[in-house]
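Let us begin with a simple case.
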Amino acid sequence: MSLRLINIISNAGSMQTIADIAERFHALSVWTTPAHGDESAVCHILARPEEQQDLIDQLQGAVSKQKAWRIVIMPVDATIPEIEKTEQPQESREQAIREELYAEIDRGARIDSTFVQLVVLSTIVAAIGLLNDNIAIVIAAMLIAPLLGPNVAMAFGSTLGDRELITRAAVANLTGIAISVGCAALVGLLVPATPGPEMIARTRLGFNDSLLALATGAAGALSLTTQLSSALVGVMVGVALLPPAAALGYMIGIGNFRLAAGAAALLAANIVCINISAQLVFLLKGIKPRKWIERRAAQQSTRISLSIAFGLLVVLMAIVYLQR
């Protein structure tokens, strides 16, 4: 069940307007309680899954000009008595609403001590796994790596035209990649060795690698919009980002700049592909700003970011073709 309880705190005089909006969007239950100690009140709305995003947008438009207002959104696991079968939507849509997505994705674009520690640890584990040709260790490193968040956040910010989120996500992504490459380079300096097949495989850009990155970006965005577990998706994105970053750093550490260039090309192609596919999924899922003027800015941001990404992808694929 993907019901949500929407609580709107606003002026008591606007409660009837809020109730009318809830009725227009076929809310399952609506009730009002007075707030303590002032002239405000709280309207509680049990909202249908298929109406939630539009309902929240309308409610926000109705109360946003007030000085003191707040909308609190809470998931509902079950109700007693249960919702009648006739009241349930014909098609289950386990889709997160925009505000929930923003809150979750915003956390993934933050640089804190935990993010740095996880990147360092995952890179060390990945470098050891690649050196020993042990794919199990590499997979363990992918489980640790927090590289999914910043990349999906960049795609989400581009879809909404949110420059602040795009900037923070880009900084977090560059920081994570830089830390990963730096740690792997240090491993190369301290433990120089002849690269094995697993390491060499992460220094060659091919068409299959780009297809993998496109799939992982789409899976990452889909897992968020449909509220599915992102654990498996984290592993998939780790396949596309962490091993080539570790290989790039290690090759720099041992001074093999020819293979380092190949790993850098693979890493760049994967980042581009992940962002393209994630952004396309957000667009197909109908993720967009609330206000029409913001939508115009978002459309422009989407066109620019996709044009740049597709241009870079074409250049990288041309390099792959010429090297064959």
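The second case is a distinct protein. As before, the sequence precedes its structure tokens.
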Amino acid sequence: MRPLLTGLSLVALAAFASTTPASAKAAPATEAAALQAQLERIDGELHSQRELIERQAAQIADQQKEIDSLKMNLELANSRGAGLVAAVEPSDGAGSTPLPIQPVGEGPAQPKPEEQAQVLAIPHDQGVLTPAGQLVFDPYFEYDHASTNRLVFRGIELVPGIQIGLIEASDADRDTITTTPSLRYGISNRLEIEGRVPYIYRNDRIQVVQQRDQQIIRGIALRDDGLGDAEATLRYQLNAVRPLQPIWIASLRVKSRTGTGPFEIPYDDFGVAEGLATGSGFWGVQPGMSFLLPSDPIVLYGGLSYFHQFARDVDRVIGETFIGQVKPGGALAANIGFGFALNPRFSYSLGFRHAYIFPTRTQIGDTFQRSARLQAAQLLLGMSYRFTELQTVNLGFEFGVTKDAPDLSVTLRMPIVLFR
């Protein structure tokens, strides 16, 4: 820039000299020196302005980075209707660089808060954590339907089609309605606690057909309700929210045995249940890890967890059989999916979940028996509508794709921010 301006100065002087009358050419040398000094001063001012523009451009670039980071945080903050995250925390624990007090240039226009699309339809335990000091009441309603059809033959088969023994066919339909009030509280911007106490209503209808010398048909209809297994969960966000990076969340869930377990319901003299369980009957703990990865306009999510239940001594005679120690099998579960915001109020999600359930070890009399391994896989569909900043309605569907999974599950959640 300086050589160019100097050249322009010389050209200007030459032009001035060529167009000045002869009388002016005889002017004192001091006037030419003054003009040269004035041109050099203008050259210096232009150079200073160029440096100022470069500094302002660097400040604008820094501001844009901060805006992108804050926007990413805002897009994820209400991913399950938990409210906005207060700030983006740096990973090293130091305070973030403050923005300039005076605005430099004109930044890109930001959408109004009510116009920003938020993905709220992803599963309730996959979202960004509740902000510090915020309390959310999250009532949860769930309907499950499962049906099984089994044919059991106990005997011998002489030739194909000719059987000697007992043939038993059973058709079971089970409907379960669960009402679960829950509360979530943000201890800090990276740590939240949640408590849930379910109430369960069950309706089972079982029809058994036995073929001996003659056909015997028996129908069983059972209805029961009661308190389920209360549970508490801690979730901790491992890293800060940064553009193009996943958010990792570690969780620990503890389940009690406040509900009525399967070994606590009444049985008749033949070992046939006369009631229905509303709980598992065992204490359990479930560590897990999940992630959220924003990729505008969607949010990818996934997780892995292991559910362990502690063994206990039942020590009860059911029918004519003594049941001793029971060690329930653990469950290894994984899920993956994505959420998509169609507009600022409506979003939906699609996902897949699979659980591998290990065998249960049961002491029956003087021997120990193991149950079969189970595979429970489900397709997930969710949708969400945000009425206000404090109230959202989420509707979810789960469709079983293996015989060990429930045929259908429908969930309805209405999280409400009580205070923040």
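Residues 1-14, 16-20, 78-117, 154-165 have pLDDT under 50 and may be disordered. The domain at 135-419 is CATH 2.40.160.40 (Porin).
Keep these points in mind for the review questions at the end of the chapter.
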